[in-house]
Amino acid sequence: MSISVSRPSTFSFQCKNKKRLMAEINVSPLKHFVTAKKKINGIFEQLGTYIKESATFLEDTYKNQQLNPVATEEQVQEVCGYLTKVAGIGEVLARRHMKVVFFGR
Predict the structure, then answer these.
(1) What is the phi/psi pair of residue 20, to 5°?
(2) Is 102 left (phi over 0), alpha (psi -120 to 50) or beta?
(3) Distance, CA of 38 to CA of 93 (rounded, Å)
(4) Tell me: the pLDDT tens digits for 67-102?
(5) For 6-21, how does the pLDDT look when each residue is reduced to its tens digit (9 = 90+)?
(6) Which residues contact 55 (CB under 8 A, 6 or more apart)?
(7) Rg of the Cα atoms in the chain
(8) Nearest to 63 by CA among 80, 76, 49, 52
(9) Residue 97: its H or E element
(10) What spatial distance separates the first Cα and last Cα of the chain, rounded to whole Å?
């Protein structure tokens, strides 16, 4: 009596990877731009949320008389300035019409 154990074929796995790589290579530069733009928008949204939370925390601790001075008024204003800058960048990134230049080979 013999027992045969079937092993999964690695060839089909390699073919799938090759197909995926070929699909990624054949994607247009515009598609790469759209994907990158979406990722950058997400990053700046997260950054804006983080700065907003930080500004709120600093303002609350600055105004609380029971706490030792955690932050100065200048530091609170500086963080609020960062929020304005990130919001401005977010507005530029949210534009629907952007000029894109592709340099070929």
Answers:
(1) -65, -40
(2) beta
(3) 9
(4) 877 788 898 899 999 999 999 888 888 887 766 555
(5) 545 444 445 556 655 5
(6) 76, 79, 80, 83
(7) 26
(8) 76
(9) none
(10) 63
